[in-house]
Design goal:
Blueprint (H helix, E strand, L loop, with lengths): L1 E9 L4 H19 L2 E7 L8 E8 L2 H12 L2 H10 L6 E9 L9
Antiparallel strand pairs: 1-3, 1-4, 2-3
Helix pairs in contact: 1-3
Length: about 110
């Protein structure tokens, strides 16, 4: 199992729109494509409270490539993204890292 950590740094004031998009659209589309989330977090204390951090669980890089590619080109996703950004851009920057658990990690 590998994990992907993604940090979305929102345009100031747009975090609520991003959270709403995940809750009402993105997660349903992920389910359709078999994308497994491993947790979502907002920043309570840290550099910015305009960030959403989440983890995805993948069996392999090949699985990620296949499923993420299908998601990114899904017409339902493109429509949901466009509708959610009708009032302006939501995300200013995305950071993504692929992580592997250590031998002593509680998460495998």
């Amino acid at each position: 199992m590998i994990y992907e950590m993604r940090i979305y740094r929102c345009v100031p004031g747009r975090l609520p729109a991003l959270l709403k998009r995940f809750e009402t659209a993105t997660l349903k589309i992920w389910e359709k494509h078999g994308i497994k989330q491993a947790g979502f977090f907002t920043t309570l204390i840290g550099e910015s409270n305009q960030e959403l951090t989440y983890f995805l669980a993948w069996d392999s890089l090949a699985e990620r490539e296949k499923k993420w590619g299908a998601f990114m080109t899904d017409p339902d996703w493109m429509k949901a993204r466009a509708e959610s950004e009708a009032d302006g851009q939501i995300v200013g920057n995305i950071v993504s890292q692929i992580l592997t658990p250590t031998a002593f990690s509680a998460v495998k």
